[in-house]
Amino acid sequence: MIAVIDTGYLIERQLPAEGQIKGYVTDSVVNELKTVGSREYLEFFSFMIEVRNPSEEYVARVKNDLRREVNSLSDTDIDVVALTLELKDEISEMWVGPNNPEQEEVVCLTNDNGIKNALSRYSSYEGPGFSTRKYKTRCYGCFSVFSENLDFCKKCGLRTLTRITVADTENGEVMFFKKGYQYKKPKTLKNARGVELRSAGQREYIQHQKMMKSKMNRSHKEIGF
């Protein structure tokens, strides 16, 4: 998943700890990180986040498309919206073939209602319900759905999990599935010693989980989480 990250997500420290995204922040977002803690938080995730600014073309496009709302959007908001759209268009234009079978998903990680509303105007990007979309894990084997990220299904125990998009609507939660989706066997999961991890109850997997949790806790303490 490719994500454009807004200031609030960094200040509130809401990035997924699993590191399953390729993130982008603009210079204007970085400049809004005023505290040492928020800058250290960004630095901690520097392995998956890089600084990139939108092109003047997309900034002008956003200002023109949203000219009635532009006064309520800050320069940073406009940068975030413009970069999200630019990345989405770049991905959409990529050739889809054997070496690139699926288009990457582009999202904007923000708590700002102004940015959410602005992006919802571009139906080609997310369409209605953009501001309420979230992700869950679904087992392709037994069709169970879970809110947390997992390596193995909690019901059937198989490593047949996929991520799906869901949205809260007036009629309840709605799931979105890719048209023509075909399940792909996930990569083999191994621990630090190269032992293949086959189930949640496997001794090596339990030890692996404890080690990863301990490592993450130590990292958080080092930067004052």
Automatic annotation (TrEMBL):
Residue ranges constituting the Nin one binding (NOB1) Zn-ribbon-like domain according to the UniProt record: 132-184
Keywords tagged on the record: Hydrolase, Metal-binding, Nuclease
Gene3D superfamilies: 5'-nuclease, Nin one binding (NOB1), Zn-ribbon-like
Pfam families attached to this UniProt entry: PIN_6, Zn_ribbon_NOB1
GO molecular function: hydrolase activity; metal ion binding; RNA endonuclease activity
The keyword Metal-binding appears for this protein: yes
Taxonomy, superkingdom: Eukaryota
InterPro entries recorded: NOB1, NOB1_Zf-like_sf, NOB1_Zn-bd, Ribonuclease_PIN
UniProt-listed GO biological process terms: maturation of SSU-rRNA
Any single Gene Ontology cellular-component annotation: preribosome, small subunit precursor
Domain Ribonuclease PIN: 4-87
Protein name, as recorded: RNA-binding protein NOB1
